[in-house]
Amino acid sequence: MSEEHAPELETALAGVAAALADPSRIRMLCALMDGRAWTATELSIAADISASTASAHLAKLVAGKLIICIPQGRHRYYQLAGLNVAEIIEKMMNLTGIPVTAAIRKSSAPPHLRQARTCYDHLAGETAVAVYDAMQEKGWITADGTMLTTAGESALTALGLPAAHTVKRVFCCGCLDWSERRFHLGGYLGAALFTHCEQQGWLTRTPGYREVTITGKGKKQFRQWLGIQIP
């Protein structure tokens, strides 16, 4: 590394170290190690600090590029900036030699809504999050969930779902799930997949409600198609 870049790197590293150098911020980061997105209020409770103090700490963690802020409707959620951040925190935990268990805030959503429900015109809940994760693991959608890959196009075509790109709305995107605090598939592709699953009898809606039931046929198809086990 050339000397001319050394000061810039040193300053950046010092900024990251400063962002980590506070017990309250560490407690927040440990809470976020569960992989979900949390609100500022939830993180203030996890860190046992006031909401105003939490906001100041969160701003420093965002500035240090350790976490990201995800606006969702009227709410703002915070999540680790990436797997590399989680790995750094995990290594720091190992260095202490002390077992660390992150406080996990349980969802208040009713169990039947947690498993499957509608989110506008696409599927949400545990099943939808599992579908999104599986599609990423198989390389069918990009890491940020904004594009369908060539392998994904082939898989959806084989399923009988046309992977059309000439649509006015966002083609595909990660939509933050309010009960799971992780992403499920949204956009045109999420809606098209939901419609396809309904037409194939993989799921049924409860008229007048958001609840969705995954049928026996659907459980079998999701298992064969994506390797997802649905209770």
TrEMBL record:
BP terms from Gene Ontology: response to cadmium ion; response to lead ion
SUPFAM superfamilies according to UniProt: Winged helix' DNA-binding domain
One example GO MF annotation: cadmium ion sensor activity
TM regions (residue ranges): none
Domain of life: Bacteria
InterPro entries documented for this protein: ArsR-like_HTH, HTH_ArsR_DNA-bd_dom, HTH_Metal-responsive_Reg, WH-like_DNA-bd_sf, WH_DNA-bd_sf
CDD domains to which the protein is assigned, alphabetical: HTH_ARSR
Protein name stated in the entry: ArsR family transcriptional regulator
Organism, as annotated: Morganella morganii (Proteus morganii)
